[in-house]
Amino acid sequence: MINATFYRFFRGCRYPAGSLGSVAGLLLAVAAHAQTAAPSTWAFSPERDRFQTGALLDLRHLNEAVAGQSGFVQVNQQGRFVRPDGQPIRFWAVNSDVDRQPQVARGPLWPQGGSDLAHHARFLAKRGVNMVRQHRQISPDLQTHPDALLTDINEAERDAIWRMVAAMRKEGIYTTLSPYWAVPMKFAQSWGIAGGNEQAALGLLFFDETLRSAYKVWLKKLLTEKNPYTGLSLAQDPSLAVFQLQNEDSLLFWTVDAIQGPQRAALERRFAQFVQSKHGSLEAAQAAWGRSGMEGDQPAAGRLALVNIWELTQPPAQNGRGRRIADQTEFYARTMHDFNREMVDYLRKELGMKSLINAGNWKTASAERLGDVERWSYLPGEVDAVNHYFGGVHQGPDNGWAIMQGDRFTSDSALLQPHLLPVNLKQTQGRPMMVTESAWVLPNAHGAEGPFLIAAYTSLTSVAAYHWFATVHEGWAPPHSANGYQPSQHKWTFVTPEVLGSFPAAALAYRRGDIRTGQPVLVEQRPLPALWQRQTPRLFEGASFDPNRDTGAGARTGPASRAAVSPDAFLVGPVQVRLGADLAAATYAADLGAWTDGDRIRANTGELTLDHRLGVATVDTPRTQGVAAHFHRAPVHQLSTLGVRSDNPFGALMATSLDDKPLDESRSVLLQYATQSRPTGWREKPVTLALEGGGTAPGWEIESYGGAPWQVVQPRIQVSLRNPYLRRATALDMNGMPLAAVPVQRQGGTLRLRFPPATMYVVLR
């Protein structure tokens, strides 16, 4: 039965002669793929992708036949990833935990109970992915092996790493590998770690020699033993593009204050040794500090107390105590820098590793005071990184990992709050910057803007890779209770119709370089004394959001107004910094006035515009054009080739050439349109949220978190393209297979159509 949505769609179309058969076919095809219970939505239940040859949308050809076939990824002088021949390579990346979810064995590479990684890799490659991050834990697993030695590697995790690398490289997908995280690390009393099993691992890898020695043994077993699924060790496998020394740990974060007992004593002895070396003696150091002693100082025992990290987040005092805090800041930074240098040397010289190395990806207790200090500590490696999410307030008893009935939330939009965009990053000049974990975190309802904005603004600012977080499914996934504890909806996933479904056009535009990189708008020179004194930089990044450290109950803000340069700069062009001991050049800051007009911010390439009052972003380049918008505020848009009129409240449309020609000359164009989705049965009601620290915000309360399948808001959008060559349009299913012809009109040199129901992709030919 054809519902009212379909009737309204076809009633408004004019059909060319002889098109009735195509219309009838479209009616039957769309009716078969839609759910009539809710006229404004369609049920998202795509079949398992069989990778048929008749697909009209398959981006596997963008990848190499085998990842790393030309050698190891390198960094050029501009700080961009390149192949050994100097050819630039851009990574559209995801985090995958697929084989943590036992499924069905389907081949010799996957043992009984494992996932079909070959299918997973092919699925990702088809949608434009060419990098996967594995976040693992190679330390001994005391839960399954209570008698394990400290130097034992977690063999199950190593095997999972090896299998994933092997599967991905076959589909031209590179790997970012994160093998260690202090949060889940547990110690056995017999291992000889100071503090024993009562001591958390956060911060210890930077200075605990016993743990560091064991870590080196794990890395040797991981990287130098032959991967049985490839015949290569990881150290010699060029498909391993980036190796992360550790995940989400820093001596400049709040967790440093939790280092207590014997480990605190060890850290304070190291501090005493540092200041003695710097000042010549402890007596000279105390004189330089104006005799500003602290409770806990034991100079006779070679130990000096450390101030609470909060004091490092405050404006620097011009007195003895201020000088002491500056020395402590330098001590923390050099301790991490020295660890990173030691590990890079070990990997390069002793293990023969050739992959690029990232030292860390974490934030600090103050982006303003300590952000540049943290990034300086990463310099021994070649690549910088950060974990930075976008979402909103989420209040509930288990809001760190689950979406449950009774939870309250706000649904933020980066189109309205662009200063919170997770790729607004200050980049160290000459070094690639990656976002290794990020997502439009559920229950946020504006995920459709995510791939659009990430493709646009990572291109503009040359952020080297953005890793979407995360998936546990081989392919398409329904709303699911993947938490394993109690009924709820999973929270940390990009596998929603509007996000994963928006990958193809965004990935193609980004990887092909359709959107140009801008000229730097700020290049700040920051000598090391300014870092240790924690002086405010000209511009600093806004507060990030993380699932495991932030409750999600308080409001987030962008860079504070005390920054000398407006955070609009992040949306105009690259923001860069030079960190070093001897910087002769002056800081460069462009005049932003030429690119900003109240709420409207233009990129200095002239290709991107964002109006955060209306909530509209546009991309206008020769090969890719598009609009992401709160269309109820601004329904009509005309770009150089693409025209849009939408009756949806919110959505993102991209038009991109499939034959590499400009849109106005192309003979094959992809139209991709994403709206919004919720699980079937989802119910919410408006409420006012009370925020931590005071204040309120309008939001929603979940009355039911629903279940499978996703219900996707029907597209209600008219599209025009100024192109004299295009004559026909074909609706595709979510696996890129043709469904049926879509009625089109030609008016002179312009093609017009209405987007068909229950569809995200249309190919024009």
Task: Summarize this structure as a short list of keywords or feature phrases.
globular, 8-stranded parallel sheet, 14 helices, 10-stranded antiparallel sheet, disordered N terminus
Protein model, in words:
By secondary structure, this protein is α+β, with helices and mostly antiparallel strands. 22% of the residues lie in helices and 22% in strands. It has 14 helices and 38 strands. The strands form eight sheets. Strands 20-21-22-23-24-27-28-38-34-35 form a ten-stranded antiparallel β-sheet. α5 links the parallel β6 and β7. The chain starts with a helix and ends with a strand. Mean pLDDT is 91; it is low at 1-39 and 101-113.
Question: C-alpha Rg, in Å?
Answer: 27 Å
Number of strands: 38
Structural class: alpha+beta
Straight-line N-to-C gap? 30 Å
Spatial strand sequence of the major β-sheet: 20-21-22-23-24-27-28-38-34-35
Which stretches are poorly predicted, pLDDT < 50 over at least 5 residues?
1-39, 101-113
Average of per-residue pLDDT values = 91
Helix content: 10-25%
Please count the helical segments: 14
